[in-house]
């Protein structure tokens, strides 16, 4: 069993390692064997994070009004690098048809528990 200190250490390492959110147009259901998005369009750099709560980190990524315009986003994934790198998670999202009239604020929450 990981004790609280161990879980918080894993949280801190995860937060330090995964600083990029890739956004893409693929709609394939995520699988444990995935190593990349199906169709990556762009990658965002983490703008902030909050790990003040035990066993949890919130990571924020902002897509500005100048980014991703004309793309219908369907998938996101956390990565360790601005290109390539290790993918730590992947998910399908409700379609967002991006244009220059709005920004998107992605907040990724990771919670660490004994299982």
Keywords:
six-stranded antiparallel sheet, 44% strand, 1 helix, 115 residues, mainly beta
Describe it.
This protein is mainly beta. It has one domain (4-111). Helix content is 12%, strand content 44%. It contains one helix and six strands; from the N terminus they run αββββββ. The chain has a six-stranded antiparallel sheet with strand order 5-4-1-2-3-6. Strand 2 and strand 3 form a beta hairpin. The relative contact order is 0.28.
Q: Give the biggest beta sheet.
A: 6 strands, antiparallel
Residue stretches low in confidence (pLDDT < 50, at least 5 long) are none
Tally the helices. Answer: 1
Number of self-contained structural domains: 1
Concise description?
This protein has 115 residues and is mostly beta strands.
What is the topology?
Elements: H1 4-17, E1 20-24, E2 40-50, E3 56-63, E4 72-79, E5 87-97, E6 104-111
Antiparallel strand pairs: 1-2, 1-4, 2-3, 3-6, 4-5
């Amino acid at each position: 069993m990981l004790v609280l200190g161990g879980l918080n250490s894993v949280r801190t390492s995860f937060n330090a390692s995964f600083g990029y959110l890739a956004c893409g147009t693929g709609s394939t259901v995520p699988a444990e064997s995935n190593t990349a998005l199906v169709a990556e369009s762009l990658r965002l750099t983490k703008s902030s994070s909050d790990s003040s709560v035990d066993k949890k980190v919130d990571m924020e990524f902002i897509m500005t009004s100048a980014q991703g315009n004309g793309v219908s986003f369907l998938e996101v994934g956390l990565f360790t690098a601005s290109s390539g790198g290790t993918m730590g998670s992947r998910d399908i999202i409700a379609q967002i048809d991006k244009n220059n009239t709005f920004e998107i604020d992605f907040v990724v929450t990771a919670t660490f528990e004994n299982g």
